[in-house]
Amino acid sequence: MSLAVGAVQQPGRHAIIYGERGVGKTSLAKTLLDVIGDDFQTLDTQTINCDESDTFSILWHKAFRVLPYTTNEKRHPEYLDSLLPDTVVPDDIQYCLSHIKRPTIIIFDEVDQLVDQNARNLLVATIKNLSDHSIDTTLILIGIGDTVDAVIEEHPSIARALVQVQMPRMSRDEIGDLIDLGLTKLGMTIEPKAKTLIASFSQNLPFYAHSFGLYSGLKAVDDFRREITQIDVASATLDILRNSHSVKSSYHTATFSPQSNSKHDIALLACALTQPDDMGFFSASSVGKAMSALLGKPVEVPSYIHYLKEFAEPKRGAVLQVVGEERRRRYRFVDPLLQPFVVIQAFATNRLPLDAFETDETKH
Fold it and tell me: Residue 10 pLDDT > 80, yes or no?
């Protein structure tokens, strides 16, 4: 957060918030708007979502139609979109933003969805233009880590004007604080073991922590209790599975096989149980420990590497992304929400016992 606040407070600096999908990047950006108060002009919609159909011109028309401004001649707010030509270039952005008399923040979310290379190049050129001319506007881009790599690699000079803010997954303590905050507002509490179980199931992703808090809380309320128990959390797994249709579809595409001896489901579960790095990547060798535990015998990489390769292919839904040269390859769930789903699915179908999620602090 401090890096993002620093970018806003320094003239000529802009920011890119990056990390896995589902770690709370958009929430961080919106929290930033709350922290800085009313001293900055912001979009009526707070953020603008990029999509595959956006060109540079479309993107800025979308932003400027929700960015009000006033002049000395006109006391009533108008929107900057009225100043833009149909076809937009970076100089047009600089000209329009110079009409705003207050420091301004513009947040573009899901920049990785901006597939038009010309649009991405012009967006980088706009950052440099605004920085060079000391326009009191901060652009904040939100995307996955690959977006940062592409931007810096293609335009190394932009690094001086762009503050890079990495958003990792939450820690267990942060997940716990998130749960406590929500329950305090409701006048409810939660057992320590139940809180730890939510952190384990959610794989430190706030989306699942919120979902478990909701469904387990409803179960406690239905039982006329104000405290959530470990049993409530375990029961909530079925609600999570029922309300995760798109992720469930990806899971079945990746694991279905007409062959009874297929171990696609076990291999994907082993991937899900592997501790990833800050960018969500893991190695083939690191899957071995979980694979051995699930099969009850030692396994070597050659016996399961073909599953990892298949998970990256379209016929298996391309649920894994592969980077790096052979023998140095790393893997990552394309949709990070699939990783906790696989673990929750295994627990709900009795393939993972409850004690598999116990930690030293929960063993009494």
Answer: no
Q: Domain 2-166 adopts which CATH fold? A: Rossmann fold (3.40.50)
Domain segments of the chain as ranges: 2-166, 172-244, 245-336
Give pairs for 160-164: CB < 8 Å, separation 24+.
161/12, 161/13, 161/14, 161/127, 161/128, 161/131, 162/13, 162/14, 162/15, 162/16, 162/127, 163/3, 163/4, 163/6, 163/7, 163/13, 163/14, 163/15, 163/16, 164/3, 164/15, 164/16, 164/18
CATH number of 245-336: 1.10.10
319, pLDDT greater than 90: yes
pTM: 0.80
Asked whether this chain's domains 2-166 and 245-336 adopt the same fold, the reply is no
CATH topology of domain 172-244: Helicase, Ruva Protein; domain 3 (1.10.8)
Q: By mean pLDDT, which of 1-15, 167-181, 225-239, 242-256 is the weakest?
A: 1-15
- 353: how many CB neighbours lie within 10 A of its CB? 10
pLDDT digits (tens, 9 = 90+) for 171-225: 899 999 999 999 999 999 999 999 999 999 999 899 999 999 999 999 999 999 9
- Output helix, strand, coil percentages for the chain, rounded to the nearest 5: 55, 15, 35
